[in-house]
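Example 3.2
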Amino acid sequence: MAAAVSQGLPKWERKMRIFLCVFGMVLSVYALHVELSRERNPDYRAMCDLGESVSCSKVFTSRWGRGFGLVQFFVAKDSPLNQPNSVLGIIFYTLQLGLGLSLSKRAAMFLVLASWVSVAGSLYLASILAFVLGDFCMVCVSTYIINFAMLFTNLKRRSAIEGMKEKAG
């Protein structure tokens, strides 16, 4: 049955998932590196800092760079629960990659749900980026694009798995 389901998945899905998750993880690890480097050395200049209004380190070290700027209202600012958004990204892309190996309907539904949450978070952070910080962050925008692409990929995967299980059932 698993072989039949995997044959029903779009051929591009697995390669696209691996590409998006690896690229998302690389960007998230880089964002974490920039944030930690900037915290240790306020004069640190990241490769993605191209000017006054194009500065990823300014974004990553802003209050919205940790816990979406919301967690600090519920726990202390330096609480272990108030992690950098990049850590949340690393967890998200790892889960997307790992659960993408499963052919269950439940995993497919979780992947779609997680993608919708990431897209909502991306839209929220994009609005903060544009209207509050007045900045452009190439790393941030790239992760937003990846999150939208992950949603598309997961919706296609879920439809294929549901269709194959109905035919097999």
